[in-house]
Write a structure and sequence with these properties.
By secondary structure, the chain is mainly alpha-helical. The protein contains 6 helices and 5 strands. Strand 3 (204-208) and strand 4 (211-215) form a beta hairpin.
């Protein structure tokens, strides 16, 4: 019985390793082929030749060769590499998250991390936050990271003090996600450059099973700039 269990475990491990290798190889092949897909006619062999010349220190003499080098080496190759790396990081982060909470449906959305980051970026843009010693892009990224950690902190606190199970962790994350979504769509007012920015939500009424229920259907945020003499836009 023990030997049969060990053999089954090894068989499943080999299948998982083989599937991982095949998926990784397919991702690399697709990423390599994507660098030659552009509005200019660049063949796959030309793209590989450009990469080989840059790695070996070759030169590009003609205008066409320099143009292809600019398109492939300076344009689409960094984008393709960044896409592969970011995809791998997201996959690894999702696997770690699902392993920690022991729930296969846990991700950045069901745990509220994505909504927290969105709310942080919204506050940064609308209220025009300024973080000393950092650029606007860096400040936006930092604000998104800080607010994305709020749902994580709430889940960790509940898990540490209440000893909740994995399913409850995900439910807590979903509750935090809806809270951030509602707060993100709530009215916000601020003054910027002499104009008032008004963000509001569209509330609709719904009736179901003969019971009147007022539900908020957030159809979007509308931004209106109001000056001293009236609406500007």
């Amino acid at each position: 019985m023990v030997n049969a269990g060990v053999a089954e475990y090894r068989r499943r491990t080999r299948i998982r390793v083989l599937a991982t290798v095949m998926i990784a190889a397919a991702a690399v092949i697709i990423g390599a082929y994507s660098i030659c897909i552009s509005q200019y006619a660049v063949s796959f062999s030309e793209a590989l030749d450009v990469i080989a010349k840059n790695l070996s220190g070759g030169t590009f003499d003609t205008y066409h060769d320099r143009l292809v080098n600019h398109i492939v080496w300076e344009g689409y190759l960094p984008i393709g590499i960044a896409g592969l790396l970011i995809g791998a990081i997201l996959a690894l982060g999702g696997a770690v998250m699902q392993t920690i909470v022991r729930n296969p449906v846990a991700d950045a959305y069901t745990t509220g991390i994505s909504s927290g980051a969105l709310f942080g970026v919204t506050l940064f843009i609308v209220l025009d936050f300024q973080i000393a010693g950092s650029s606007k892009d860096a400040g936006m990224i930092l604000t998104a990271f800080v607010f994305s950690m709020i749902p994580v902190a709430i889940i960790v606190l509940f898990a540490f003090f209440k000893k909740v199970i994995s399913t409850v962790m995900v439910l807590i994350g979903i509750a935090v996600m809806y809270i951030f979504v509602d707060v993100h769509a709530a009215p916000l007012y601020c003054e910027r450059g002499g104009h008032r920015i008004h963000l509001f939500m569209d509330c609709r009424h719904a009736r179901r099973d003969r019971l009147e229920r007022h539900t908020l259907a957030f159809s979007g945020l509308c931004i209106r700039f109001r000056g001293a003499d009236g609406d500007i836009a």
